[in-house]
Write a structure and sequence with these properties.
Strand content of chain A: 15-25%
Number of helices of chain B: 13
Low-confidence stretches of chain A: 1-26
Structural class of chain A: alpha/beta
Helix content of chain A: 40-55%
Bound molecules: guanosine-5'-triphosphate, iron/sulfur cluster, magnesium ion
Largest sheet of chain B: 8 strands, antiparallel
Helix content of chain B: 10-25%
Radius of gyration of chain A: 22 Å
Strand order of the largest sheet of chain B: 11-10-16-7-8-15-12-13
Number of strands of chain B: 33
Largest interface: A-B, 46 and 24 residues
Strand order of the largest sheet of chain A: 9-10-8-7-6-5-4-3-11
Structural class of chain B: alpha+beta
Shape of chain A: globular
Strand content of chain B: 25-35%
Distance between the termini of chain B: 62 Å
Low-confidence stretches of chain B: none
Distance between the termini of chain A: 33 Å
Oligomer: heterodimer
Number of helices of chain A: 16
Largest sheet of chain A: 9 strands, mixed
Amino acid sequence: MIRYADSEDNLILVAGNRLQVIHHLLLATCHLLLMNSLSLYLHIPFCRHRCAYCDFNTYTSLADLQPDYAAALAAEVQQVAGAERRPAHTLFFGGGTPSLMTPGELEVILTAVHTHFTISETAEITMEANPGTVDLAYLTAIHNLGVNRMSFGAQSANPGELALLEREHDFAAVVTAVQLARQTGITNLNVDLIYGVPGQTLASWAESVQAVLALQPAHLSLYCLTIEPGTPMKRWLENGRISPPDPDLAADQYALACEQLAAHGYDHYEISNWALPGYACAHNLTYWRNGEYLGLGAGAHGHTASIRYEVVKQPRVYIRRLQQAEPPGYPLSTAVAAHHTLTRQEQMTDTLITQLRLLDEGVDMAAFAQKFGQSLLDVYGQPIDQLVEWELLSLADGRLRLTPKGWFLSNQVFYRFL
Amino acid sequence: MTQSNIRNFCIIAHIDHGKSTLADRLLQLTGAISDREMQEQVLDSMDLEREKGVTIKASAVRMNYTAQDGRDYILNLIDTPGHVDFGYEVSRALKSCEGAILVVDATQGIEAQTLANLYLGVEAGLEIIPVINKIDLPAALPDDVAEEVENITGIPAEDAIPISAKTGENVEAVLEAVVKHIPPPTINTDLPLRALVFDSHYDSYKGVIAYVRIFEGAIEKRQWIKMLSNDVTVEPIEIGVFSPAMKPVDRLQAGEVGYIATGLKTVRECRVGDTITLRDQPATDPLPGFQRVKPMVFAGFYPSEGEDYAILKEALEKLQLNDASLVFEPETSSALNFGFRCGFLGLFHMEIIQERLEREYDLDLVATAPSVRYEVVMSGTGEVRIINSPADLPDPATFDEVREPWMDVHIFTPEEYYGVIMDMVIKRRGILIGQEYPAPGRVVLHYELPLAEMIVDFYDKLKSGTRGYASMDYEFKEYRASNLVKLEVLVNKTPVDALAMIVHTEDAYHRGQKLVSALKEKIPRQMFEVPIQAAVGNRVISRANVKAMRKDVLAKCYGGDITRKKKLLEKQKKGKKRMKMIGSVEVPQEAFMSVLQLNDD
Ligand SMILES: Nc1nc2c(ncn2[C@@H]2O[C@H](COP(=O)(O)OP(=O)(O)OP(=O)(O)O)[C@@H](O)[C@H]2O)c(=O)[nH]1
Ligand code: SF4
Ligand SMILES: [Mg+2]
């Protein structure tokens, strides 16, 4: 039994056994340590070819802009940072295909980051890469620049599915990329897979999962395909070239993955993410703890100082905008498209819909009460009761969590907290 | 000015043959409206009319015209709607006129409502002036159509006036014919005032505006009036004429058409069909009033948001001010809570009212499937109960018979579609009564059909089955006993009153099955499995299950873009909010209209 005092000096009881107490203390310490440390997201909006399901902010014919883009990104880093050299503990190059940036271009960006932020020794520096875009020389170069984690978009081990998704690589390229990365010393590796793909079966999914497990990555992200408006896949769906994915099959695929990955020692720590012990993605944890991160680069999103903001999407506009002199002030650069100061209500909502994604951590009710001066149950008692009754949420040892049934019905939970 | 200079006339035609366009030209020619103010179908002032290109309400307008004989005339024109649902507007307009221009489309020829409206005009003793319109079109066959008109009306083909309302060609001849052939009103200004209310609309400043035709006597401004049916007396705010905007005058007298802004706040005080007289020198007898139109189609209207009930009530009351044929009474439904059972002239009328409520009053409505009014003869007492809502049909053990309304239907069609139409009608329990060949290659089929079989999609099917060539007119014939049962729907074992239907015994099984599968598609998966059943009495005749939801996740949240995710959740939440609860099952509003999609032919 441990006692915390909340803001009004009332005593809140948090029950639990010793182990949990230690766990919570550890988490609390981590939070404290990281409280003033940022995560930086850097968006690279270039791809060679647009995948059939993709509606990300990426462009396939702007490769010529890359050098200017790198310079603009460096300029944005400087604008946003100001003179403070704030601490940051994670860097994430997302895309697009960040691995299309040359080591030289990346160096421009990273130099700016190191100049204007204090990057801890142990910082996690991730780069997303498409298998087939990296060779040994490249990986060595970026490892030397400080990249210590790679995330490979494998998506599937099935040639037919890869073709339908219009991925430009085969699974052999994934195997090679993983081997090469390890060879250069980047051992912290994530692999992405997609299920719920039209035509995908439970068996073909099991094969993809097995194939990836054979590579023993430290981290796995498994996403359910959503067919977004404006994508080729959406058109194929509308003109009948493909049939809509069966949600029940997707549920079975998810269940199968949960089982297989658990059997291989992976910790299912977030709805769509699994990691070997100690390898949870620190950068993404910032998002899921509703923490503070800066979004840099075209179309990036950031959240800090109770502000959410969004950077202009078009790379050309982005580059042009960064030639302007006067930034509006932290955390905004001259390339910001929109920003919004969060209301208390929005912050509560964000806390719930991000933190519930963390399956074991969930929402710490004491921390919630501390932050908002109101207990979680006072604010959301009604939806929580209903969701507990439906067995989508559980309340135990001072935490609100999704149940295994709730993992795959999370929207049903989240929208009730808006 | 002497009375013989007045001409009161209306324009009648089948829908879309060009009444409103012709009215436009007449207004322009007489200078009632300047070329600058001119817009297409000026008299169709409602947004909805303009958008659909269809006249919904009759409207009146006064024009000054100097004829070729050198004399000045006052022409009062009443534009009328062509759709069969609004036949009552036409009949009211006819009562206020001495003549009618019968417009026939030169490319279509005579159609069902041309005939129906012509008969109404003849019955009302009107002088008919046939006009063949749209002669500018390459497909126009004015001579053939004039001959058709002669065959049917007996008016010599050479007297029909060929025009193009669009280009204005020969429209002047129409005005000349009006002046020459339509008799001036017979008038008597010495008698006490008798003014017939042939229409009305509501104005928030001036109250109920009565559109009147003065038959006898005269009214000066500020003279107190009295409604003959209910003895309501009031000092009108204003009297005037339509030119075409409302223009106050000091005096209206026998023979004239105009308006009286009564200042009255409810339509009950000033009904269409009533006679207005003066309080101080009252007439004793009302003019022959109009028949009260009876609503034929009923549906429940419920606000999507329960709190909008009061707004809906007020909106219906307001619409009723302009539309005497709309009736409504409060109704409660276990699924939809508080709303109104509304009666309409037909499905088109229902659609118009629904759109006006949603548009003009910004309401979001759930409408139940339309049904007809049944008569139930109770056992023992022989008492006849009127059932406006299928859910109200009593236990079959307690009544001797159920009667449903049957209609007299005339379908006017090129001969080649005879077979198609016959099939459609027989599938709907219709009976062929007779057929006539009014023109070569054309046939009028006379059927009797249960109204319940017609209200859903008969007209659409008729149009699509005959590539738009057939047209239809119908009127109520009588109530007849039929072998009818109540088909109930149970969602998660709970009967849903708003989904109940009354169907012919032989159709029950088939309809039940279709309804269940339609609902299965419309009801989204819930957190638990939901059985949907159709039952007659206690017997379940069809069943399907909506499986429990297993997956509802979003794809990758990219680069911390929470905003986008929240937008999607927001949308989901909004969708849920619009759902109606049946027990603990969330049912989308469209599901309540599923019944409409049951016909498969
Ligand atoms: N070419 C041509 N088109 C015409 C003529 N007269 C009317 N139209 C068109 O026919 C359509 C119907 O005309 P309306 O004047 O709205 O017909 P209506 O009889 O008032 O229709 P309802 O009020 O719906 O019964 C419109 O698209 C007109 O533009 C004409 O003389 N020539
Ligand atoms: S690689 Fe990623 S960002 Fe690029 S097109 Fe494919 S899915 Fe989109
Ligand atoms: Mg019209």
